[in-house]
């Protein structure tokens, strides 16, 4: 049964980056179940194939899988060229791919920080540009969702007795907060009907969260996926610009 408010997205095309695990995989299942055609993008194709195998038989045809590294312009261009040719373009973009590596800003590898920047910021920009171009050309409504974080709004202190390990990550998420507002203004000024939503969760029980934090209250991937589905299901005149989720009892 289609979720209330998702009817208009039935048989439309959604692209989910970072779809091989966690929030991306969970959201992919929910979108497919709602009748959306989903292109799942990730570097780990075997994980995407496992995801497809886990779907009910009558839903598998709605899931397309493509290898894509959002840090590579060539990889992004190839993926979206395929989407344009085979499916006619994307209507929904879920910018979910992200990278976090523990370490201190003053000592960690610059190469590692470049990878985090390229994944968390430029990957969002390059994917969003392609979807914007397609939606504008087709003159059709769309929705861009950006996976932000509470650290895209403020910084919390590390656990007692430990060093701060977030390094460049909060800076990339603060950039996404600014990018969300920039996109809202640009989509408006280009006279489009494209919504943009920033989703800012606290700690989520995914592969990316350091083990030391897993003893704290955590959101589940389903919680965040449900929030995204809520934003997508809002009426055409309603734009959920920023949505923050925290687990009950979070100490930050």
Essential attributes:
alpha/beta, SDR_fam, Farnesol dehydrogenase-like, single chain, 252 residues, NAD(P)-bd_dom_sf, oxidoreductase, globular, 6 helices
**Low confidence ranges:** none
The CA-CA distance between the termini, in Å, is 38 Å
Decide which structural class fits the backbone: alpha/beta
What's the average pLDDT? 95
Shape: globular
Tell me the β content.
Answer: 15-25%
What composes the largest sheet?
A: 7 strands, parallel
Family: Belongs to the short-chain dehydrogenases/reductases (SDR) family.
Protein name: Farnesol dehydrogenase-like
InterPro entries: NAD(P)-bd_dom_sf, SDR_fam
Keywords: Oxidoreductase
How are the secondary structure elements laid out?
Layout: E1 13-17, H1 22-33, E2 37-42, H2 45-54, E3 63-67, H3 73-87, E4 92-95, H4 110-138, E5 142-147, H5 169-189, E6 194-201, H6 221-232, E7 242-245
Parallel strand pairs: 1-2, 1-4, 2-3, 4-5, 5-6, 6-7
Helix pairs in contact: 1-6, 3-4, 4-5
Tell me about this structure.
The chain has 252 residues and is an alpha/beta fold. The mean pLDDT is 95. The chain is globular, with a radius of gyration of 18 Å. Helices cover 39% and strands 15% of the residues. α1 packs across α6, α3 (73-87) packs parallel to α4 (110-138) and α4 runs parallel beside α5 (169-189). A 7-stranded parallel beta sheet has the order 3-2-1-4-5-6-7, sandwiched between helices. The chain is built from 6 helices and 7 strands. Belongs to the short-chain dehydrogenases/reductases (SDR) family. Pfam families: adh_short. This is Farnesol dehydrogenase-like.
């Amino acid at each position: 049964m289609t979720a209330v408010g998702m009817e208009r997205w039935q048989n439309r095309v959604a692209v989910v980056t970072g779809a091989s695990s966690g929030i991306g995989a969970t959201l992919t299942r929910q979108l497919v179940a709602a009748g959306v055609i989903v292109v799942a993008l990730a570097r780990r194709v075997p994980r995407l194939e496992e995801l497809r195998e886990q779907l009910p038989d009558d839903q598998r045809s709605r899931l397309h899988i493509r290898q894509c590294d959002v840090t590579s312009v060539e990889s992004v261009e190839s993926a979206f060229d395929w989407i344009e040719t085979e499916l006619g373009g994307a209507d929904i973009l879920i910018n979910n791919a992200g990278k976090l590596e523990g370490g201190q800003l003053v000592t960690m590898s610059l190469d590692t920080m470049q990878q985090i920047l390229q994944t968390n910021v430029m990957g969002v920009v390059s994917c969003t540009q392609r979807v914007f171009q397609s939606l504008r050309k087709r003159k059709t409504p769309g929705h861009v969702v950006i996976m932000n974080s509470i650290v895209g709004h403020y910084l919390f202190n590390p656990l007692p007795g430990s060093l701060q390990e977030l390094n460049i990550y909060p800076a990339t998420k603060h950039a996404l907060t600014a990018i969300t507002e920039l996109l809202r203004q640009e989509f408006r000024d280009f006279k489009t009907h494209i919504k943009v939503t920033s989703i800012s969760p606290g700690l989520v029980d995914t592969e990316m969260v350091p083990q030391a934090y897993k003893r704290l209250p955590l959101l589940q991937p389903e919680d965040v996926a449900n929030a995204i589905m809520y934003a997508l299901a809002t009426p055409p005149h309603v734009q959920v610009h920023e949505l923050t989720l925290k687990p009950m009892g979070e100490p930050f």
